Amino acid sequence: MLDTVTPPATDLLSLDQAKEWLSITDSSTDDLLAAAITRASAAVTSYIGRPLLVGAYRETIEVPALAKEVALARWPVTALTAVTIGGDALDVDADVRMDGDTGTLCRLDTTGRSRPWYWGCRAVLVVTYDAGFTEAPADAQDATLQLITAAWSARGRDPGLRSIGIGDISLSYVAATAQPSVDTVAHLLDAYRVPGIG
């Protein structure tokens, strides 16, 4: 069970970053652009299956028998605050080892404290930790910007309109189905996605 102690920010870009990307110099469309950032960020986060930005969590895990490692639901882990097993507190500096990049936690042998050891049969862990990036990674920002750019370009346009002509001048629009969607930027996001099982 995962409880969020401090929710992470949801927007993967700042308004200034998006304005610079779109070459917008005034503030007349700030509200519209802020909404576009929120929608694109939500689409990226939904595809990934977890928040990217830093938050604080308390996770309760029932460890399978003979397990030496447990994977936390959020990563990268930036701070391990507390670990209890069956209600007993462990020393986070001496009794456990955390791989922050993968969010993998292992218990250390209590004698030498250097090698992974079994958590115990049906042990219940409560782990309090901070996880996430302080700033969205560049490829996730790029994916978000591509989605914002597509939405911004199509703003105010009739989605049913494909081309228009006046005399010798004609203008064709890219079909809405060809606009970038999460599927078209998935290659930028797959490294951060929660692995599927089955």
Alpha-beta classification:
alpha+beta
Indicate the mean pLDDT.
87
Report, as a whole number of angstroms, the end-to-end distance. 21 Å
Low-confidence stretches: none
Biggest β-sheet: strands ordered side by side in the sheet = 1-2-9-4-5
Main sheet, how many strands, which sense, barrel?
5 strands, antiparallel
Shape: elongated
Helix tally equals: 4
Alpha-carbon Rg, integer? 23 Å
Assembly of the depicted chains: single chain
The helix/strand order is: EHHEEEEEEEEHEEH
**Amount of helix:** 10-25%
Record field, number of beta strands: 11
Fraction of residues in β-strands: 25-35%
Can you lay out the helices and strands and say which pair or pack?
Layout: E1 2-6, H1 15-22, H2 30-48, E2 55-62, E3 69-71, E4 77-85, E5 88-90, E6 96-99, E7 104-108, E8 116-117, E9 124-131, H3 138-153, E10 163-166, E11 169-172, H4 186-189
Antiparallel strand pairs: 1-2, 2-9, 3-7, 4-5, 4-9, 6-7, 7-8, 10-11
Helix pairs in contact: 2-3
Folded structure, characterized:
This protein is an alpha+beta fold. Helices cover 24% and strands 28% of the residues. The protein has helices spanning 15-22, 30-48, 138-153, 186-189, and strands at 2-6, 55-62, 69-71, 77-85, 88-90, 96-99, 104-108, 116-117, 124-131, 163-166, 169-172. The strands form three sheets. It has a five-stranded antiparallel beta sheet with strand order 1-2-9-4-5, with no helix packed on it. Strands 3, 6, 7 and 8 form a four-stranded antiparallel beta sheet that branches. The chain has a two-stranded antiparallel ribbon with strand order 10-11. A hairpin with a 2-residue loop joins strand 4 and strand 5 (88-90). Helix 2 crosses helix 3 (138-153). The protein is elongated and about 85 Å long. The two termini are 21 Å apart. The mean pLDDT is 87.
